[in-house]
Design a protein that fits this description.
Elements (H helix, E strand, L loop, with lengths): L4 E10 L4 E6 L3 E6 L6 H11 L9 H4 L1 E10 L2 E8 L14 E4 L3 H5 L8 E3 L10 H9 L12 H5 L3 E2 L17 H12 L4 H30 L8 H27 L8 H63 L33 H57 L6 H79 L6 H4 L5 E3 L4 E3 L9 H19 L10 E4 L9 H15 L8 E6 L4 H4 L22
Parallel strand pairs: 3-12, 8-11, 11-12
Antiparallel strand pairs: 1-2, 1-4, 4-5, 5-6, 6-7, 9-10
């Protein structure tokens, strides 16, 4: 099983720093029993609150408490959380107070070692700051829902907690400001239908579509600025430059031929000055080209480093997960004989110490360390990805500039070479005409080089447009295929939930004919209701309560059978006999649920509920937690009068 949540211990401290409640919970079924008005509901309120629920409607006795602390286990990682009961000047309790995390068990948190400290996480999520919901989701293996519909741990708990105050018609824990989209997203998330990769690809599709529109706008603006389409064709411009260079080369050859017919002379002063000027210009331009080459090399190295770094981080996360699985696998290998003397090893009496060295075993420390490292590595991957995209865009611009500057350098170098060759006298009139034509061609080449820089960028934009168009086509195809599979998975899960719901209804006492004869059962998460064949059917208050409880427990029971579900195999219910349900019917429901979960490994789930109608058999069983509470012996102790 995956996505497991267990409550191991609950500690409540009064404002006078006294223990109001301190009980250990076990995996499997946990029953909190007692008379009415003895504080059973208060305990479930505190469980809801410490796990991140937005609750502030505490009874007066609970309002005299200051801190609630819980040792929890999430996916085999044991840690401790605590949440203060913060009040304003008017005595109103905040629903957005932070949660403190200690990466160890509760006993260790009372006197933590130097290397372990409490970490504070607030209610809200910021760009570089995680909320306690983010931490809870990551430890539960739940994908964090991003975007406009932000899902918190409170929204998850609304489908795990069955309270007394919500109307029987409300499937979820009731709250005033609720939306269909929130309920539907929570249901998809817990049922296992929500696909994080699908969400990321949908988000990428939106971004890619915007990028495509921007690129198309740039292409359109550039094409309108240059009326001649050939001005944006790099092949045409390169051909034009080559033709000009060939003509210049021909002119230069003619100049040389003319001069060879004349008497050879040495360089004059003017020629030297001209060559020196061209040479200095070539040096400056070469330096500029070298700088651009270095910049391109640097950016390529940075991009490669980022790619390798991201790959290494992803491999590290994978290695962390593999190490956890390896640790769990190796931890189960039996060692029956001492490797030194081959004597049979005797296990420790309480099973908490190593059979070989007799040192205490900490099963969860390695898992905890790995989870913490996963959180840090995920942040590094996000930052490295942003830097990678920035460097890629910068490289695109630098390469376009480099193409232009390299062409300028080649032109200057040719002028330098020509100056070296032009060292002899020749017919002034012919040479002047040739030089004039040569200068005109060189001017044309400079213009072509400027156009070529724009054409190169335009060509890259065209390629970018084609790449984005292909990516969008791929994303649309992926989204279609994934949503189809998603619908098939949702249908399979709903079928299993329906089977569990029909079982609970059919085995109810003979109080509602529709329940005994039911063969249909539906849950409409979006509209927050559960119903049989007709969603508008009316039943008694007790039958409506039974229907609601059956719906909630059917989801829980289905999660014990389907690994695909992300429901954390944890449910807690306040008062199994609400809305006037009779004792026999309530006790029958308890027996049904306990018999149903008894077919599964109790180490894979936790069910907590309160009751005033407990049978003698259950009252004397290992399922109960704490004392039997009454008005004289309430659940909260040491509360000042």
């Amino acid at each position: 099983m995956r996505n497991n949540l267990f409550l191991n211990r609950l500690l409540i401290i009064t404002e006078e720093d006294k223990v109001a409640y301190d009980e250990v919970y076990h995996k499997g079924v946990n029953i909190i029993r007692g008379d009415n008005s003895s504080g059973k509901s208060t305990i479930t309120h505190f469980i809801f609150y410490v796990l991140g629920g937005a609750f502030n409607d505490f009874v007066p006795e609970a309002r005299k408490c200051s801190i609630v602390q819980a040792e929890v286990e999430m996916n085999k990682a044991i840690f401790t959380i605590k949440r203060e009961i913060v009040k304003d000047d008017e005595g109103n309790i905040s629903t957005q107070s932070p949660i403190y995390f200690f990466w160890g068990n509760m006993k260790e948190s009372f006197n933590p070692p130097i290397e372990k400290v409490w970490q504070k996480f607030g209610y809200k999520t910021y760009d570089n700051i995680k909320s306690f919901s983010n931490v809870m989701f990551e430890n539960l293996g739940l994908p964090i829902v991003k975007g406009d519909n932000n899902i918190t741990i409170h929204q998850i708990l609304r489908l795990l907690y069955i309270d007394q105050d919500s109307p029987t018609s409300s499937l979820f824990y009731y709250e005033h400001f609720d939306s269909q989209l929130t309920r539907e997203t929570v249901a998809d998330l817990l049922l296992g239908v929500y696909n994080e990769e699908l969400y990321e690809n949908k988000k990428r599709l939106i971004i890619a579509a915007k990028e495509l529109e921007n690129v198309k706008s740039e292409i359109k603006a550039t094409s309108h600025f240059f009326s001649d389409p050939l001005s944006l064709n790099p092949i045409h411009l390169n051909t034009a430059i080559e033709n000009c260079e060939k003509e210049i080369s021909t002119i230069q050859e003619n100049i040389v031929l003319i001069r060879t017919k004349e008497k050879e002379v040495n360089y004059d002063n003017d020629s030297k000055l001209s060559f020196q000027s061209l040479n200095e210009e070539a040096i400056i331009q070469r330096k500029k080209v070298v700088e651009l080459e270095d910049k391109i090399s640097f950016l390529n190295n940075e991009i490669n480093d980022s790619v390798f770094f991201i790959e290494a981080l992803n491999k590290k996360i994978k290695a962390l997960k593999n190490s956890i699985q390896t640790r769990e696998f190796l931890g189960n290998l039996p060692l029956e004989y001492c490797p030194e003397c081959l004597t049979k090893i005797k296990p420790s009496e309480d099973g908490t110490k190593c059979k070989l060295c007799k040192e205490p075993i900490d099963e969860s420390f390695g898992v905890l360390q790995a989870r913490r490292m996963e959180l840090e590595i995920g942040f590094q991957i996000n930052e490295s990805q942003k830097l990678l995209e920035l460097n890629k865009r910068m490289l695109l611009e630098v390469e376009a500039e480099y193409t232009s500057e390299l062409g300028k350098l080649q032109d200057i170098q040719k002028q330098v070479n020509a100056a070296l060759e032009d060292v002899k006298s020749f017919n002034e009139e012919t040479v002047d005409n040739l030089n004039s034509r040569k200068g005109f061609l060189e001017g044309e080449i400079l213009q072509y080089r400027t156009l070529l820089e724009n054409a190169e960028l335009y060509d890259k934009l065209i390629n970018k447009r084609d790449q984005l168009s292909n990516e969008i086509s791929f994303l649309n195809a992926y989204i279609y295929r994934t949503e189809k599979k998603q619908a098939e998975l949702k249908e399979a899960i709903n079928t299993r939930v329906k089977e569990e719901g029909v079982y609970l209804l059919n085995n109810d006492l003979d109080r509602q004919d529709e329940f005994k004869n039911a063969n249909d059962f539906y849950i409409d998460y979006s509209n927050n209701i559960a119903f049989l064949s007709n969603k508008f059917s009316k039943y008694s208050a007790s039958s409506n309560f039974y229907l609601k409880v059956s719906a909630r427990f059917s989801i829980f029971l289905a999660s014990l059978q389907l690994d695909e579900m992300r429901f954390p195999r944890f449910i807690f219910a306040d008062n199994m006999e609400d809305k006037g349900i009779e004792m026999k019917r309530a006790q029958n429901l308890q027996r049904l649920l306990i018999n149903r979960v008894s077919t599964y490994n109790s180490d894979q789930y936790q069910m907590i509920y309160t009751t005033s109608y407990i049978t003698a058999e259950l009252n004397n069983s290992d399922f109960v937690v704490g004392e039997y509470y009454s008005k004289e012996n309430p659940s909260l102790k040491n509360i000042p009068k």
